[in-house]
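subagent[fold] <- orchestrator: predict structure for attached chain, return tokens only, no commentary.
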Amino acid sequence: MTAAAPPESPVRVACLQMEPQIGRKERNVARSLTMIEEAASAGARLAVLPELCNSGYVFATREEAFALAEEVPGGASVAAWIEAAARHRMHIVAGIAEREGGALYNAAVLLGPEGYIGKYRKNHLWAAENLFFEPGNLGVPVFRTALGRIAAAICYDIWFPEIFRLAALQGADILCVPTNWVPMPEQPASLPVMANIIAMGGAHSNALFVAAADRVGSERGQLFLGRSLIVAHTGWPLAGPASAESEEMILADLNLSDARRKRNWSEFNQVLRDRRTDLYDEMLGAEAKRGWY
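subagent[fold] -> orchestrator:
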């Protein structure tokens, strides 16, 4: 008897590169909803929005950050995205400033057609974020959905290979990355931006898809890179990089089952199987926030 073919998980993914404006939450959410509708019309079933896409990024004071933050999932922005996810029968990952009591987190929410699924809190804070946010305390959760196993990271998180690896070892098919990439010092004009190289390397080294949605424009003197990117589990781009200046949508058709197959790179090599766990801890010293969330 011939063995049954592995189950397939085709999905069209959209990264929605937009330009939030600091403090203009209603305007930013309205713009995100327009782009989500465009993605749904284009057949996307998973849409990724940038980091802090409802509030803007460059806070002047902690008071400003706190005033723009919301409880998750109880805030107005998440409610609007939940309604959009239900109406378009799609999944959405979006960056948001989360307020929990007196603490603030740079967070991402995952929403689906049936409502709120879960959240991720940025583990590695960049620059002045340390003045406003607490480091993430939820580990690297992997969420089981109808589309597949979804994990998230935010911007600077992907500079740490442990984030990719912990997601992959828990079975993630795709890492969604809301981000606000900024220029890196000494970037050669002849090469891709460092963030794109890191996203491609993390996807390749862990055999999982990566969908990174950046913002564009400048805010209080800070320039942002754009260059949103969707990467295959092989490490090669499927869509993008997007432009450096314009709001735009990039789309890619992918099969999340390809990440689960963890194809060999050669007759002898498979990237997760070849780990030398006799030399280092299997979960890289992570605490017990593991498994399916």
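orchestrator: received. Logging for downstream: The chain is about 25% helix and 25% strand. Helices lie at 25-41, 62-68, 76-88, 129-132, 161-169, 194-206, 257-261.
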